[in-house]
Amino acid sequence: MFGRDPRLPIDFLLGGDVSDNEDVLDGTVPEWLASHTKTLQMAYKKAGEKLLLEADNRKQNYDRSAKESPLPLGTRVYLRNHPPGRHKIANQWGERVYKVVSRPNEEAVYVIELTDGSGFQKTVHRREIRPCPVTQVPISRQVRRRHRPRSVSSTTDSESSSGDYGPILIVSNPPPEVSDSGDADSEPEVPVPAPDVPDDSPPSDEEFVP
Question: Per-residue pLDDT averaged across 186-193, rounded?
Fold first, then answer.
């Protein structure tokens, strides 16, 4: 790993040949270092080319199902919130409302600023902004209700037999008047006998018979 053989304390105790290793290392370290550097550079280059190729393939696969949702100028948006430190339960979007000022190119990049015009303009990506929902208050309209007359229907025999009872109309008619002309349709008058009243007057001479 370091370009030379390791030297351990056991080598000195056992009396190993160290001079030969030093002579070999003196002549091979620069060459090994050069070859090792060249190998690392080539590996780094190949890895970068492979990463770019894989990234291009992922982009093509993503673009097949991606749907663009462009924002017109003047759209009110929220900016994504990036608070420092721990923000596990923090709001994902900020409370301040921005508006889209311009779109530099056809890419998903927008220039926004605050709605009141204060502050500086910011150039952000499309994923960092979200359209502000606009709620429309419905206008209440006064609807005139037409009062329809209720129809009163008299009950029939079929309705009474079936058990469905509807509204009943009761009309009080005056008693029929009896005319003096003596019509055939009019009922004849029946004389009413007078009650018997006892006579307390004394009898007359004509009624007394000896």
Answer: 57
Is 60 exceeded by the pLDDT of residue 181? no
Query: 74 is written with which tokens?
Result: 């003047």
- What is the C-alpha to C-alpha distance for residues 43 and 46, in angstroms, rounded to an integer? 5
Sequence-ordered strand ranges (E) for the chain: 76-80, 93-102, 109-114, 122-125, 129-131
Q: C-alpha 20: how far from its chain's center?
A: 82
Say if residues 109 and 126 touch (Cβ distance below 8 Å). yes
Compute the radius of gyration of the chain from its Cα atoms. 59
Burial class of 110 by CB neighbour count within 10 A (0 to 12, 13 to 18, 19+): buried
State which of 28-32, 49-53, 74-78 shows the largest mean pLDDT: 49-53
